[in-house]
Amino acid sequence: MRKNLLLAGLFTTFSLVVKSQVGINTSNPQGVFNIDGLKNNPTTGVPNAVQAKDDLVMISNGNLGLGLTAPGTTLDVNGAITNRETALAVAGNAVTIPVNVSQVQLTGAATATVAISAFAAPNPGQRLIVYNNTTGGFGATLDGVTIPNGKALEFVFSNSFWRSTDGGAAGASPTNIYTADGTLAGNRTVTQGANTLTFTGTQTNAFSVDGTTLSVDAANNRLGIGTTTPSSKLHVEGSQLLNAAVTTAQTKNALDINVGQDGFGYGNRTDNFGINMKSSSSVFTGPISRINFGDVSTTTATGDRYLSFSVGRIPNELMYLTDANSGRIGIGTSTPQRALHVNGALQVTNEINVGGNGTTAGSAGTSGQILTSGGAGAAPTWQTLNTISGTINGAYYVQGTTAATAAQGTTIDVPGATITLTVPAGRTQTFLFTVLGYATLVDGNSSQGVFALVQNGTKISSAFASKAGSFPGGTALGSMPVPVTFLKSVTLTAGTYTFKVQYSAWFGSATVNFVPSGYGGYNGDTESMLTKMQILVYNN
Fold this sequence. Notes:
This protein is mostly beta strands. The chain has helices at residues 2-19, 49-52, and strands at 22-24, 33-36, 55-58, 64-66, 75-77, 86-89, 94-97, 103-107, 114-118, 127-132, 140-142, 145-147, 152-158, 161-164, 207-209, 214-217, 222-225, 234-236, 240-242, 273-280, 285-295, 305-311, 316-322, 328-331, 340-342, 370-372, 381-383, 392-399, 404-406, 411-423, 429-437, 447-455, 458-470, 478-482, 484-492, 495-507, 510-512, 532-539.
């Protein structure tokens, strides 16, 4: 046994020396050193990506790979890398980061900006992540760079300092707007969350934006737009001056306008209170438009309310809204009879939607459809013209193709005189058939029989047909068929139906779809004796 072990060891040593590769859990190392954690590499060839996921490989140029077999850099990792975090509690608004850590979390309470002391890294390029999770809302400063409260910042050690990777310079001093003027270097957003932002002052122009664009008079509690000397609660210079009464009542209204006063009723239709817009032009001074509101009644103050819009030098009420009957709008009328009442012509330059409900749009129909009434209390509908009750849905025509002969006592399908039609779901249609048929044979004999219209294998109509073999008096004409034409109307419900024309020979043989090439004077018209069927389909 000892000899065998010694021999195996010699062979192994020889293999390692010759190959200059070491494989653990694999006989097929992919580099100078290869550990196959799951022992799933193939014995020959290159492992695939799944097989290499558990490998550690060092190749001849010194590159080390984890989770792959061909590392492209000094350390090439196919997977996640975890920096273990060290929690450090601040004390006296200061904290020291120990050596040999790469990520820390600052905890504890801070009452001012936290001063961070950190080790000098043994090698430039070492990285450090600092997460400021202290309470109190204060930042933490490392080598002149402040980590905001609740934020994490990455540093790299370079030129004897820890440098922030966000572009900050070591030792830079931020501008304090409370002690110095400053200039914004880009767009900024203040996210308040649940916090308030309050400005207090005692000056007449305590806060302003772009000169006179917006001015706050803190001395007199006024706001000026277009002026730095507002004369009322809200002073808009250049367009209007609105002086609203002070009230302590909370309201969701953007603008409250009170009408009426003691000794007078609510602003009814006779009063017609409103907002008047006028022109101060020297060419024409007077009304331009007006918004009216009040009570629909002219004598009471408890009826339905209204809102209307007037336009013109002599105000002309063009739109009238009322809450009567759940709300109505009148165009050109102050007594709307429906939810929308237009007293005059209406021009529509886009789609008309019908149907739908309070939350969904109705149908705009499709090109070519017409609008049909649904009756009182129902929305009209868009319908294709050939689907409306009483209209023709379609017209169909088939005719015979090849000749076929029925021997006496037999029935045959007339070739080509077959059609399949479908009645759409939920509807009924009436089919009107017209059938024309010839049955003849140039044999000098007479014959008679019946043309039949068949629906799904069942006869629904028929007509007698005959042929005279010869005529008395020595005429040159013979084998003359008597054409037959018959009509049939049938009303059908939804479904698919096959209709065909058949011929039954009662006496003598006869041919349908006959080509009368043997008849005197024949001019080559092959269609003249074909069986023909026309169907008109009406909507019910």
